[in-house]
């Protein structure tokens, strides 16, 4: 008989599941950590592995950019706190990069299970490479999942956070490959009057429903 693993997949728009965890910066309650700031919660399969080392170093070297965007980082893997501390120490000694954000020691997988980070077709004892961008209200706003053998793109993670914050601030949407500083999409009009107004506007327009402006 196939073993049943309780492994819900959180969805965009859901409240981020709360949890208590032991991390490399002490014990924490996620909802407290999330209070008043964006959080990027991300998992990696295992400490002392090559792809994970490059990714964690990527987060660490761009940590100030995330801080400038009012965003905290928190990593996770199904390893002990001792393995995490040893790995942090090892990478610091070898490369000078300090993983200066909490990394959850999720040995019993209680956080990984809540966030659908275990994908049994890929691995039953290691988390895949998940990224959850969670807003200051504790709502999951964006999710990425990568397999064990493909590292994530840090530029895209930064861009995605910037895009979400821009969309919220200016009530706009962002087109394909949007980069900060480029034009944004104005929401389509929802009345004939608004449509007529739009036709008189100085927006860059393909048609009334696809209009861009500078912000
Ligand atoms: C890595 O980080 O290199 C890795 C970890 C688990 C499986 C495959 C690769």
TrEMBL record:
Domain of life: Bacteria
Localisation: Cytoplasm
SUPFAM superfamilies the record matches: Thioredoxin-like
Oxidoreductase as UniProt keyword: yes
GO molecular function: thioredoxin peroxidase activity
Keywords for this protein: Antioxidant, Cytoplasm, Oxidoreductase, Peroxidase, Redox-active center
Gene3D superfamilies hit by this protein: Antioxidant, Horf6, Chain A, domain2, Glutaredoxin
Name used for this protein in its record: Peroxiredoxin
Catalytic residues (positions): 52
Quaternary context: Homodecamer. Pentamer of dimers that assemble into a ring structure.
Family: Belongs to the peroxiredoxin family. Prx6 subfamily.
Residues at which substrate binds: 129
A GO BP annotation: hydrogen peroxide catabolic process
InterPro entries: AhpC/TSA, Peroxiredoxin, Peroxiredoxin_AhpC-typ, Peroxiredoxin_C, Peroxiredoxin_TDXH, PRX_1cys, Thioredoxin-like_sf, Thioredoxin_domain
NCBIfam families: PRK13189.1
Cytoplasm among keywords: yes
Organism: Prolixibacter denitrificans
EC number: 1.11.1.24
Other observations noted: The active site is a conserved redox-active cysteine residue, the peroxidatic cysteine (C(P)), which makes the nucleophilic attack on the peroxide substrate. The peroxide oxidizes the C(P)-SH to cysteine sulfenic acid (C(P)-SOH), which then reacts with another cysteine residue, the resolving cysteine (C(R)), to form a disulfide bridge. The disulfide is subsequently reduced by an appropriate electron donor to complete the catalytic cycle. In this 1-Cys peroxiredoxin, no C(R) is present and C(P) instead forms a disulfide with a cysteine from another protein or with a small thiol molecule.
Cellular component terms (Gene Ontology): cytosol
Major place of residence: cytoplasm
Catalytic activity: a hydroperoxide + [thioredoxin]-dithiol = an alcohol + [thioredoxin]-disulfide + H2O
Function in brief: Thiol-specific peroxidase that catalyzes the reduction of hydrogen peroxide and organic hydroperoxides to water and alcohols, respectively. Plays a role in cell protection against oxidative stress by detoxifying peroxides.
UniProt domain Thioredoxin: residue ranges: 10-166
């Amino acid at each position: 008989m196939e073993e049943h693993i309780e492994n819900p997949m959180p969805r965009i728009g859901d409240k981020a599941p709360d949890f208590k965890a032991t991390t490399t910066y002490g014990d924490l309650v996620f909802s407290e950590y999330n209070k008043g700031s964006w959080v990027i919660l991300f998992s990696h399969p295992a400490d002392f592995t090559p792809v994970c080392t490059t990714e964690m170093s990527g987060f660490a070297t761009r940590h100030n950019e995330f801080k400038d965007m009012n965003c905290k980082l928190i990593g996770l893997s199904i390893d002990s706190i001792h393995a995490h501390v040893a790995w942090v120490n090892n990478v610091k000694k070898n490369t000078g990069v300090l993983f200066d954000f909490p990394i959850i020691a999720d040995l019993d997988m209680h956080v990984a299970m809540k966030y659908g980070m275990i994908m049994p077709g890929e691995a039953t004892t290691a988390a895949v490479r998940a990224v959850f961008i969670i807003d200051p209200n504790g709502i999951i706003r964006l999710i990425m999942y990568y397999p064990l053998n493909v590292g994530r793109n840090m530029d895209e993670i930064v861009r995605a956070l910037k895009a979400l914050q821009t969309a919220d601030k200016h009530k706009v949407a962002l087109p394909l490959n949007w980069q900060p500083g480029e034009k944004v999409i104005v929401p389509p009009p929802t009345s004939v009057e608004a449509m007529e107004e739009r036709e008189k506007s100085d927006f860059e327009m393909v048609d009334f429903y696809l209009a861009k402006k500078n912000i």
